[in-house]
Amino acid sequence: MTTSIVIPTFWTRRGGRSSDRLANVYDHPTPIDGESPLPACLRSLEGVRDVGKIVVLVAATDSSIVHEAEDRVRGMMDEFPRLDTMVFGPAALGSLHRRLEQLEFSDMVSGVSLTGYGAVRNTGLIVSATLGADVCVFIDDDEVITDPDFLHTGVEGLGMKTPEGKVLFAKTGYYVDAMGGHHLKDEAHWSDAFWRQTDYYNQAMGAVDAPPRVKPSNLAFGGCMALHRDMYANVSFDPWVLRGEDIDYVINARMHGGDMFLDGDWQIVHRPPEPVSPALGFRQDVYRFIYEHRKLEFAKSQIDLRRVTAASLRPYPGDFVGGSVSWRAFATAILRALAGREPGANLKIARAVFGDAARLQIADHHAGHPPGAHLGAQFLDR
User: Fold this and answer.
1) Which CATH architecture best describes the domain 3-275+372-380?
2) Is the pTM of this model over 0.85?
3) To the nearest whole number, what is the mean pLDDT of the chain?
């Protein structure tokens, strides 16, 4: 099978100044005047067997730096002449958008872009399709690969039936730290009594060590994910989810009759920097979990979608996409503010729970069409 490796790389303004736009807030973008982790990622790929085309997607938090970011990435590619790389930046995106409009898919343009996690990954899917890739493998720029057989493990079994009779079209590995651990380390704080996100995540990660090696999963890791063409050409990423587009893809796949599978033997070393503001990440989580809840509710009215419930997604994200998410987020924001944990930012989050976040309406975004539905297939059909 032909494989394309897609690596999104995110950039921000000098000094790490973040964007005020929700869609442009990324976990750890590289300052345009800072040191990128991308070269280390590419260097590790040099030791991987049978690496094919590598597509690097350049996304930026601010339009004023997009061309500078692309120039920096192109300069990095020159350091790796042995790798077959392709840089996809704003110029190439303009050509793609014009082609979509020629094919009368102008309504898809906002969902295929270099702004927002889901839209960036959709761009990777369409580029992979254009390259004729049977499998699209996503990794992130802050990761390194230590296993020479990383790709072989990742694509193993794709397109084949499992012993239970399901077809394996989407597979995820998982992140490990420098010591090989795959659980998050986070001391519980009293102000998080209603938001034990790390605890539920670690509980879900217990599936890594449990047999069988490959099993259906509620979790997915966008930096270690393999999508067969029969999946990525029919189910897209949701371009409107602010964060967690990988777990959201699990929901999209299930709504369309598929599943995400976790491979306990497939891992990648994740080396993210420390977050500048935990409150910023919490805000994005509040928005995305409320959005996911409304998405699940909206999908109930769609007769062509398989129903996905919050209970079926336990232990994680489970209750975070259930009906209690709004009051849990509100209570947590208030408690964090009272505890002196970025009080100003958390009070704004508390107000947003029943303000901006509460006004998220799936139907408004999608005009009656379910998110993540056939975006890739519509393009490929032409």
Assistant:
1) Alpha-Beta Complex (3.90)
2) yes
3) 90
